[in-house]
Amino acid sequence: MAKQRLVILGGGESGVGTALLGKEKGFDVFVSDKGKIKEKYKDVLIHNEIEWEDEKHSEKKILNAHMVMKSPGIPDKAPLVKTIREKGILVVSEIEFAAQYTSATIIGITGSNGKTTTATLAHHILKQKLEVGLAGNIGDSFAKQILEKDYPNYVLEISSFQLDDIVDFKPHIAVITNITPDHLDRYDYKFENYIASKFRITMNQTKDDYLIYDADDEIINNHLKEYPIQSQLLPFSLTKTIENGAYLKDNNIIITIDNNQMIMPTTNLALEGKHNIKNAMAASTAAHLLKIRKQTIRECLENFQGVEHRLEHVLKINKVQYINDSKATNVNSTYYALESMDAPTVWIVGGVDKGNNYEELFPFVNEKVKAIICLGVDNEKLFNTFSNMVDVIIETQFMSEAVKIAYKIAEAGDTVLLSPACASFDLFENYEDRGRQFKNAVRNL
């Protein structure tokens, strides 16, 4: 019998991981990337004798596939993807392809914001007592981990793009941190399409599975009313009393699952801010479900260091605190950042705008922001939106310059905050590159 042909579009972390697992499972594998494949990934493909091409897509070599794994960065609107689907070829994400080769318990975490912090925190707690991998949108690819060391448990951070191409994927515990408008350029500018995409994380769940979600999020609540799901609901809230799930009362997080209760003071949480209480609730609820001891959960919440590029305190220079929040690639993320500022702020913002509406930031900008530095190829929208709210608004296209300007403007007691509210692809390779350039520029002051 001829081998099944697996074609992989995109030679990045998830593509190469899938190629390795696919080869191991007996597929005839071909990797095709329209851009350049990084040297480190090329070396892996060559070493493993996997056929590949880059800087082009040869349709003849692609359209004879039985299955296509497409990188989450490639939109469905791409002509090649349309052609593949028209031919009736199954298109899957790495998460879908890899999950069929593991019997692990999966905690799948999605949401517009907080998913990296929640996933990293959940992994930090679980690894104290369980063998657990961390994958998805973060770290080594899920497929590669299954191939090299199939853990009995995985925490997966999953984007809406990865969920768009699942078929049978089913996490035992699903988490939706929140849903706010993001990536609408990929969803025909229809918010409801993006919401439906996030909820795909629950589509194969049964009554033996769980959904942990933010009960303060009207969008999630409304969707659950309109489209009820099978799984057991474990909401978390800062404002309501929750019988089954987690809530906040007198600065304590109270988690109840099947009458088994756990109480944790929030005063010692390592991460600051209301949104981080929610992230802590979501991660702790998942850990509680997997029978991790209360004491272990408490200790982990108190010593967790957070995620790089997420409200990361870089340095204090001349009594000015520099904070790297490069991971804020949408308005809601920046909302949390500005909400948590308690000093006059010089705000560095801008990049590729995904159809942003900045209105929810106005109260914070009026109250806390003394100057705005726009860092993008096109800053016109930021100027039009904010120029009448602050005395100083300046435009630049270089991180080193943005930081020097901030240094000149900021006075003792101020904060300089990089929280772009936009994607990074106009001036930087990705948000990590943007964050590292910021940190280097601050260290070179």
From TrEMBL:
Localisation per UniProt entry: Cytoplasm
GO cellular component: cytoplasm
SUPFAM superfamilies: MurCD N-terminal domain, MurD-like peptide ligases, catalytic domain, MurD-like peptide ligases, peptide-binding domain
GO BP field: cell division; cell wall organization; peptidoglycan biosynthetic process; regulation of cell shape
UniProt-listed Pfam families: Mur_ligase_C, Mur_ligase_M, MurD_N
Domain Mur ligase C-terminal, first and last residues per copy: 309-422
Amino acids binding ATP: G111, S112, N113, G114, K115, T116, T117
One MF term in the entry's GO annotations: ATP binding
EC number(s) per entry: 6.3.2.9
Pathway: Cell wall biogenesis; peptidoglycan biosynthesis
Function: Cell wall formation. Catalyzes the addition of glutamate to the nucleotide precursor UDP-N-acetylmuramoyl-L-alanine (UMA).
Name of the featured protein: UDP-N-acetylmuramoylalanine--D-glutamate ligase
Organism: Confluentibacter flavum
Lineage: Bacteria, Pseudomonadati, Bacteroidota, Flavobacteriia, Flavobacteriales
Gene of this entry: murD
